[in-house]
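Worked example 2:
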Amino acid sequence: MKIKNRASALAAGVLILASAWGAAQTVDWNHPDIDLKELPRAVAPARGKPAAPADEKTAASAVIDITAENYADEVKNSPIPVFLDYYATWCPPCKFVGPTVEELAVKDKGKVKFGRVDIDKQPKLTEDAGLPGMPTFVLLKDGKEVKRLVGVDRTDKDANKKRLEDAVKAYLLAP
């Protein structure tokens, strides 16, 4: 059974908790010794911060949050090429590569528009994109998809950076 949130865990009557040693334990919520008021609420993990931004405000403003409401203006009708990062806050590979995307956004600001789509908050955009995995990077020129990259190397930030930089150069910055 896949448990997505605390509410579904309560409904199912069980929750998998990671112990300090990384082992999984099953907790029976109906057990008389468990007081639900004493349990901490789950908090979504942070997306991460750029590894070494020139300036935190610049990095944060270099990547635009794309929504169904601003998609046409920011993506379809953009006068410059667009790099979209489809991610989820709960996705470890997404969090691993997030700072790299922000770094590239600062580097190529004004030449390429970098946007991110939170798949949980934008189900329509996610469905329309037909994502095969997470994270997915979609590169668009003149509002049309020119390249799609799926997944990242979870162990090598430099390899991810090179792969994304090469794709931006080849598909978005090349004439």
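Residues 1-29, 34-54 have pLDDT under 50 and may be disordered. The beta strands are 14-18, 24-28, 63-65, 82-87, 113-118, 136-141, 144-150.
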